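lol so apparently i was supposed to do this last week
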Amino acid sequence: MLKVDVITLFPEMIESAVQYGVLGQALKGDLLQVATHTPREFAAPPHRQVDDRPFGGGDGMIMLSETLEKSLLKVKHKNSKVIYMSPQGDVLTDEKARALSKEEHLIVICGRYGGIDQRIINNYVDEEISIGDYVLSGGELGALVVIDAVSRFIPGVLGHTDSADKDSFSEGLLEQPNFTRPRKILEQEVPEVLLSGNHKLLGEWKTKVSALVTLVKRPDLFQAYLEKENEKYRALKKKKTEAPLKELKKFWMNLSEQDRKVLGLAELNEEDFNG
Ligand SMILES: C[S@@+](CC[C@H](N)C(=O)[O-])C[C@H]1O[C@@H](n2cnc3c(N)ncnc32)[C@H](O)[C@@H]1O
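anyway here it is w/ S-adenosylmethionine bound
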């Protein structure tokens, strides 16, 4: 079980959001535990102040280090990993979420106002994590993003019908498009192969479509994937197929106009396969 302690001035934001869907199930199934702690409980009455003006002036307030540190020390132990949600951190990735799911205990600090005192970061924080290159008014939404993304990798949280290993990014590719009944809607028909029931064929087809979708939507990811595939291909002694990009081009050329359209691949051209 992964235990997550969130330090926040707005505990209700975290407590209510984690009750829903997959996270709610993970909590009920004791696969995940989320608790909140507020520095306000350590602040002196009557005002229970948890912020103060920054040294050197400037806009906004900074979270007081004393109350924040007390909250942190209440839950921290030798196996804790302390994360500070921050726009200055490394942007969360699938790989990072997977790695964090293997931790025993995460403490997630949510900043508010102008952020937290740098000395708390220097002394206690193992990792600063950002959820993107923009500034939020607080770390709570970021913390929820981290908790959600990490929890999906905890064994048992997703049933076997919905494995995280088949989702986008797991093999360095985006997932192929999905369809459900009816077979034809909005003048668009589901590709024939999806009705074939041939699992080996379907597996290969889905991987190739994933690669093409990634080429269209995320050429940066596609390049990284292609380099790995080329490496594997070069290492093969007996080459039964053509080089990965040539193979993919052949697959794309054999797709019908209709399938290309319904799969969102209509904008690809022969030049996109020039390497
Ligand atoms: C208004 S922001 C402070 C921004 C800080 N003054 C700066 O410019 O780096 C308040 C809090 O929101 C959270 N936050 C803001 N943007 C974030 C992001 N992109 N990812 C994660 N947390 C973020 C952090 O916890 C931060 O302490």
